[in-house]
Amino acid sequence: MLDNLKTGLQDAIKKFVGNDEIDEQSVKEFVKDLQRSLLQADVNVKLVFDLTKKIETRALEEKIPTGIPKRDYIVKILYEELSTTLGSERKFELNKAKGNIILVLGIQGSGKTTTIGKLARYLTKKNHSVGVIGADTFRPGALAQITSLCEPFDIEIFGQEKEKNAVKIINNGIDYFNKAEKEVIIIDTTGRHKEEGGLMDEMKELTKKIKPDHTLLVIDSTIGQQSEAQSKAFTEVSSIGGIIITKLDGAAKGGGAIAAVTNTNANIFFIGTGERIDDLEEFVSTRFVGRLIGMGDIQTLLQRLKEIQSEDQEIKMQRIMSGKMTINDLYEQLEQINKMGSLKKVMELIPGAAQVPEKDIDNIEENMEKWKFIIQSMTKDEKEDPDLMNSSRVKRIAKGSGRSEKEIKELLNRYKQSKQMMKASKGRGMRQLMKKLGAS
Ligand SMILES: Nc1nc2c(ncn2[C@@H]2O[C@H](COP(=O)(O)OP(=O)(O)OP(=O)(O)O)[C@@H](O)[C@H]2O)c(=O)[nH]1
Ligand SMILES: [Mg+2]
Q1: Averaged over 26-38, what is the pLDDT?
Q2: CA 193 – ligand 2 centroid, Å
Q3: What is the position in ligand 1's atom list of the atom closest to the CA of 117?
Q4: Ligand 1, closest atom to CA 271?
Q5: In this structure, are residues 359 and 352 in contact, taking their beta carbons and an 8 Å threshold?
Q6: Over the stretch 66-86, which tens digit does the pLDDT of each residue have?
Q7: How many helices, marked H, and strands, marked E, lie in the chain?
Q8: How many percent of the chain have pLDDT more than 90?
Q9: Does 192 sit in the ligand 1 pocket, CB within 6 Å?
Q10: Is residue 117 within 6 Å of ligand 1 at its C-beta?
Q11: Does 182 sit in the ligand 1 pocket, CB within 6 Å?
Q12: Does residue 138 have a pLDDT over 80?
C-alpha cells in the first residue's frame, strides 16, 4: 500500500538518523526529503509546507527532554504531526440495534459496489446481520456483480432487475430487510458522472427520500488531491457521513487523496487496499502513519522514549531524595502539578503535603507566574544551589526580574521547606505523585 510514499518517507528517516550529527542543517535536509516524498504522492503543496514547517519548527525549537536522543525525538515529531494531519475525528459506528440504513454513493467506477461487498463482509464478521439492496438501475449487470461478491458469504441481496425506479427498489428493499430484522441494510446506487455537483444533488435527493442513518461517499484515491473537491462538497451536504477511500494499493497519489480529504475535516471511515473482499480496513491515522514510516520501528521508538523519560524521572527522584534538590526541580514539579488543574486536589494525593495549610496552597498557584520570572533571572549556579544566595545576589535578581526582594526571599523559603519535606518523607510522596502524573 502506498509503496512510493512509504519508501520515500522511510528513506528520508534512514538518512536523517544516520547523520553523524543532528544540527540545523540535517533537520533542514530531512524536511526537504520529506517534502519531496509528500509532493510526489500528490499531497497538496500548501499542506506539505504547513506540515513540514511545523515539523521543522518543533525539531529546532522544542526542548528535548534530557536523556532522549535528538534524532529519535524528531522522528517522533514527524509521526505525531503526520498523524494529526491525517487524523479523522470520528470512526464508523452503527447507532441502532436494527435497521441501520447505509447509503453508498460515489462517482462512476470509484469502487462502490466492490466496497459494499467488502463492508458487508466486514460487518458480518463482526456478527451483524447484513442485507444489501442493489439499486443501480443504470449499469448493466450491477445486480449480478454485487450478488457474486456477497453470495459466498451468505449475505442476502435484494434486487428488482425490471424496476427502473431506484427509490422504489430501495424502499421495497428496506421493507423486505426490516421484516427480516436485519441489523444493517446497505444500498448500492448508480455511479454519478465526474463532477461533484451532480453527485451532491443526488445525495440530497436520496437522503430526503430514504433518510439513511449513514451516508458513505466512496472516493477513488488514484485522483490524488483532486479528492478535495468531492470531500468538501460532501461535508457541506452531510454532517453524519463519512468517506471511504479506495484503491490505495499501488495508487501513486493515494497519500495526496487522504491528506486532501482529512484537510476538509471529513471523516475517513475505511480504506480499500485491494480488489479482494477482505481488502478493507478501518482508518486509524496513527496506525496508518505508523505503517507508512515503519510500524515496528515507530513502536519500538515510542516505547524506548517512554522508558528513557521515566528513567530520567527516576534519576531525578533519587537526586531529590538524597537532599540535592535544585530550584529548577521545585519549579518543574510545581509546574507539572499546576498543569493537572487544581493544585489542592493534587496536594491531597501527597501524604506529606496534608500538612501544608490551604492558604499556602493558594499562594503557590498565585506565585507560579512571579517565580518564573525570578528563576529566569537566576544564574545557573544559583539555580543548582540556592544556598549560594546572599543579599547582593537577591538585589541583582530583584532588578532583573522586576520582583521585590521580599518575593525572592519567599521563593527561597519555599524551596527550603520543600527540600526538607522531601528529605523527611524520603521522596515518597513525590514519587507517588510523579507516578500518577506519568500515568495521566
Ligand atoms: N486495486 C483495487 N481495485 C479496486 C478497489 N476497489 C475497487 N476496485 C476496482 O475498481 C473497479 C470498479 O469498481 P466497482 O466496485 O465496480 O465501482 P463502482 O463505483 O461500483 O462503479 P459503477 O457502479 O460503474 O459506478 C473494479 O475493477 C474493482 O475491482 C481497491 O481497493 N483496490
Ligand atoms: Mg457499482
Answers
A1: 96
A2: 12
A3: 15
A4: 31
A5: no
A6: 778 888 899 999 999 999 999
A7: 19, 8
A8: 48
A9: no
A10: no
A11: no
A12: yes
Angle, in degrees to the nearest 10, between helices 391-401 and 358-376: 80
Return the minimum-mean-pLDDT range out of 45-54, 106-115, 129-138, 356-365.
356-365
Whole-model pTM: value is: 0.72
pLDDT beyond 90 at 134: yes
CA dihedral 39, 44, 46, 52 (to 10 degrees): -40
Rounded CA separation 187/381 (Å): 72
The cell 519555599 sits on which residue?
414
Domains of the chain and CATH, by start: 1-88+286-321 (1.20.120.140), 100-282 (3.40.50.300), 324-439 (1.10.260.30)
Tell me how far the alpha carbon of residue 146 lies from the centroid of ligand 2, in angstroms.
8
Dist. CA 256–CA 180, nearest whole Å: 42
Which of 4, 1, 71 has the alpha carbon at shortest distance from 37? 4
b/e string for 97-126 if b means 16 or more Cβ within 10 A? eeebbbbbbbbeebbbbbbbbbbbbbbbee
- Per-residue pLDDT averaged across 385-392, rounded? 88
Task: For residue 133, list its beta bridge partners.
Answer: 158, 187
Dihedral of the CA atoms 94, 95, 101, 102 (nearest 10)?
-40
Distances (CA, A) of 144 to 147, 188, 225: 5, 12, 33
What is residue 47's predicted lDDT score, i.e. its pLDDT? 94
136 lines ligand 1 (CB under 6 A): yes
DSSP string spanning 17-70? HT-SS--HHHHHHHHHHHHHHHHHTT--HHHHHHHHHHHHHHHHHSPPPTTS-H
Please report the atom of ligand 1 found closest to the CA of residue 272: 31
Q: How far apart are CA 337 and CA 51, in angstroms?
A: 32
Q: How confident is the model at residue 41 (pLDDT cuts 50, 70, 90)?
A: very high
CA of 116 to the centre of ligand 2 (A): 9
Q: How far apart are CA 117 and CA 97, in angstroms?
A: 21
Give the residues across from 217 on adjacent strands.
105, 243
Check if 139 has its Cβ closer than 6 Å to any atom of ligand 1.
yes
| pLDDT score of 438 more than 50 | no
Grid cell locating 299: 513502536
Helices in 322-427 by DSSP H: which ranges? Answer: 327-339, 343-349, 358-376, 380-384, 391-401, 405-424
Identify which ligand lies nearest to the alpha carbon of 107.
Answer: 1
Q: Is the beta carbon of 81 within 6 A of some atom in ligand 1?
A: no
